[in-house]
Amino acid sequence: MKKLSRKSPSKIVLLIIDGVGGLPHPETxxxxxxxxxxxxxxxxxxxxxxxxxxxxxxxxxxxxAPGHLAIFGYDPVxxxxxxxxxEALGIGLELKPEDIAARGNFCTINxxxxxxxxxxxxxxxxxxxxxxxxxxxxxxxxxxxxxxPVKEHRFVLILRGENxxxxxxxxxxxxxxxxxxxxxxxxxxxxxxxxIANEFVSQARKRLQDEWVANMVLMRGFSQRxxxxxxxxxxxxxxxxxxxYPMYRGLARLVGMEVLPTGDxxxxxxxxxxxxxxxxxFFFIHFKSTDSRGEDGNFEAKVQAIEELDDALPxxxxxxxxxxxxxxxxxxxxxxxMHSWHPVPFMLKSKWCRPDNVAEFSERACLAGGMGRFxxxxxxxxxxxxxxxxxxxxx
Amino acid sequence: MKKLSRKSPSKIVLLIIDGVGGLPHPETxxxxxxxxxxxxxxxxxxxxxxxxxxxxxxxxxxxxAPGHLAIFGYDPVxxxxxxxxxEALGIGLELKPEDIAARGNFCTINxxxxxxxxxxxxxxxxxxxxxxxxxxxxxxxxxxxxxxPVKEHRFVLILRGENxxxxxxxxxxxxxxxxxxxxxxxxxxxxxxxxIANEFVSQARKRLQDEWVANMVLMRGFSQRxxxxxxxxxxxxxxxxxxxYPMYRGLARLVGMEVLPTGDxxxxxxxxxxxxxxxxxFFFIHFKSTDSRGEDGNFEAKVQAIEELDDALPxxxxxxxxxxxxxxxxxxxxxxxMHSWHPVPFMLKSKWCRPDNVAEFSERACLAGGMGRFxxxxxxxxxxxxxxxxxxxxx
Lengths: 395, 395
What we know:
395 residues; 13 helices; globular
């Protein structure tokens, strides 16, 4: 791709509707997409090349990071980004390649050390910041420690030092009624890093002992920044991300996108697109609430989220991007109330897209599209081709 | 494939309609294939297994060589044949494995050495031959030089010698208004070869200095014959090619086909097929003008080319080949006036093909065929299976 890609003024807009794929409602037999009033999505479908994208492979349920990385053109199995790195990037931390990042939760333990609340009462972010200042006073031999607050009970721990290894298991047992686990080294080289991480946890527990609800920390997702080629480097694009949630902003930064300022709803996101439209040639817009409502198990609310998105599309279409792609990073059926493995509706509209006979943006309709069922990693080459940004391969 | 293939008397005919895939006409919404009267192609489609073939992968636009190699069963990325080799094979040059071939253009430069015409006024082929005789007098240390005229302004340069490397960049800047580039070595081992190639160019410039239009040369596509297993070796076939254009004859030779004498239109090509039908068990017929008219951007002429081909099919069908495959090496939509990345209609007719519900040979109709969208490298195994020339795999 790097050899074939060329710079050109054409513009690509990639709209990812998080968790958009669904399953039929037991009463109506219709999925969330099939139930929603979505005249704009359907109109785009009629002018598009459609299909069903598999983020990873059939049967595999993607986390948000691999779901997005696949659409961005990366093999999601090869480039598996750790949770700690995602959190750190999400709040804009500048990491060195050797830094270890981990996601932390303030939690509540009882006198026996048993976890009673994994999210420490969802303390206010201000309280979180105060506790992080406390933890930043911790000194440990062999690593510089930095504790940075995120929202509510969430924080990021950065370990900076020589020869540290991210091959560390979580301390978070992922359920209440158990004690926090000792952090185990997953390889012999990680032994010293495990000692450092455990020493941090042990000192944190002491410093938090007078707190009522946030009196302990749980650590997970120890990881280093992966050595990932950037989108500007591979595709010669100047990409920008318009995302509300930190994690997606972090993912976008990881692959070399600039993160644009925006409001907290899709109308404001489209307005940000309009404002910065001349300055970039690739835009990733992330719409979150379809996934959130799916995870809530709220079918009707997910339908409403789709309708809210549909309402915002005319002002996006007014910009008339050379290539418009609308898809999701995975399915989140309300009936499952979690991410799922089902392939995701996809459509690509451009002057050169060779439309098919699909007349609706939904799981069943897109199956009959020109792309059939296909791996999401094919989306970026298709986007580039339709933007006439790829040279011919071979003589 | 080599282990499973077996010799049998059944006959396979592979008809490649160059650049046959297209895009909808903005007024009618129909592609070139959908617009053409093609009763024979449609009749074959009704009796065939149909699909849409991807020559390389979604979004990637193939050159003619990779487009054909994929259909012949070769991974087109692994066996990337250089332009120089293609040109040399096209005019029937016998190359040794170590020979370096490059495509040359006679071009026009002004007094400052700036290119004003990359095709040197498309000089007559006779003039070209005269200039090549001049260039054949060039002597360079370390390589034997051979300059062979092709058509108009085109020639082939062969460098023969010990330890030569084809890892050389082009001197052709691919546009006017610039000077020819110095030929750069792309690896340390190619340093001496770069010096030899530059010495040739420098002497050629001197010998051409009194010419008015063809007063310089531009070189590109330095390459060696790839070490490619032959079709007779892999499939135990005795293959023949019936192609009008040199490049396709060269490609056929590269994979071990014999090139049959033929006329310059499809009726004569089918007549050649008839004459040699008993002597071979695999025939590749290449139909060029669909691609040429597509590259001209002439929608109606491409439609006519399809109709011309359709007219020639009854005499081909009279031979009643055991397996008949009709497809293209890539799409060349008239609206784009160039090769494109869109997948290509495919059909395979045989007594054993399990027909689908497709009733028309077109992009949209073939999408619903039994093969759906699939990689073109799967065509040869399908051909062999339908000719009952493949053993069962495994116990």
